[in-house]
């Protein structure tokens, strides 16, 4: 069960013994053998048939041991208790306000509870019904932690019915009567493309043998038209991307570009420039005439834009070879030179000017991802 349910808190599984007292001792010994400081280690003992122990009770038990040396979880008795002799005669009726049910967990210093068990073993006394009784037998004072009556001990069929009622209380079953109307997870109904009335069933379990109750809730569903996102532009830093909803029924919209920038309404389409490379998720919240809202997303990868740079002499003589040297970044870019009517596709080109005058030199660089930049000089 521990492996199946993925329970990580269990450190040891110890085989029990003939009596509860002996079984507790075997479990304590497994802890004691691993303890580095049993004088200052606190141990809490809980019944396996008390599954409803809550975290605050555990904390209160630990604090009680720290302050007083022991802890016994108790809850008030709901009815008057009488003490009866062998002749079925009531001998004593204790004051009910001073009577409590002894429950679990019970807490002690590890060394002290082990010492008490060793004394019991020496005396061959294994008749204690719980650890508090054992500790009191050997002179320890006991102090209480108050709990509610929810952490019941499951020992009879009636207890089992109460346990089922407690575990099912507040748990309802949901089902979608109208097929293809959407998805239903717990009580969260998310409509799909369906438009119309959707019937949702909710069933509340009956407690303590009472019948279940089922009711049907009708939900009016308005379908939000599909929108989508249309994006045009280079996937490059500092380049303009044009974005617009894919449905012209949109009455208003909100944009989130994934880089911390946003836009609301305004001009349609909207433009945006990404300042840094990376993978972004563009979010569109599209509002429609029927009051529906649809959220659409689009992934957009942005690559760095290269820088086109080059050097050439300020003055060039006619009919002499002039070196055209690219200093573009990054070095992995491909180059395309345009000089007068000539074109070159190498990083470092050369050109001969055959006529005097002003000539335009143009360099276009392209990164491996397809981003471009242009440099010009006259």
Give structural notes.
This protein is an alpha+beta fold and 378 residues long. 17% of the residues lie in helices and 37% in strands. It has six helices and 25 strands. The strands form eight sheets. A four-stranded mixed beta sheet has the order 1-5-2-6. It has a four-stranded antiparallel beta sheet with strand order 15-14-17-18, with no helix packed on it. The protein has a four-stranded antiparallel beta sheet with strand order 22-21-24-25, with no helix packed on it. β3 and β4 form a beta hairpin. It is elongated and about 135 Å long. It starts with a helix and ends with a strand.
Quickly describe the structure.
This protein has helices at 2-5, 20-34, 55-68, 110-123, 131-137, 157-168, and strands spanning 42-45, 70-76, 83-84, 90-92, 100-109, 144-146, 173-176, 182-185, 188-191, 196-204, 213-221, 229-233, 240-245, 250-256, 262-264, 270-273, 278-288, 293-302, 310-311, 321-326, 334-339, 342-344, 348-352, 361-366, 372-377.
The amount of beta strand, in percent, is 35-45%
Mean of all residue-level pLDDT scores:
85
| Overall radius of gyration | 40 Å
Low-confidence stretches: none
Outline: elongated
Q: Could you give the distance between the termini?
A: 81 Å
The description of the largest β-sheet is:
4 strands, mixed
| Class from secondary-structure proportions | alpha+beta
Q: Give me the side-by-side strand order of the main sheet.
A: 1-5-2-6
Give me the number of helical elements: 6
Q: Tell me the number of strands.
A: 25
Helix content: 10-25%
Give the arrangement of secondary structure elements.
Elements (H helix, E strand, L loop, with lengths): L1 H4 L14 H15 L7 E4 L9 H14 L1 E7 L6 E2 L5 E3 L7 E10 H14 L7 H7 L6 E3 L10 H12 L4 E4 L5 E4 L2 E4 L4 E9 L8 E9 L7 E5 L6 E6 L4 E7 L5 E3 L5 E4 L4 E11 L4 E10 L7 E2 L9 E6 L7 E6 L2 E3 L3 E5 L8 E6 L5 E6 L1
Parallel strand pairs: 2-6
Antiparallel strand pairs: 1-5, 2-5, 3-4, 7-10, 8-9, 10-11, 12-13, 13-16, 14-15, 14-17, 17-18, 19-20, 20-23, 21-22, 21-24, 24-25
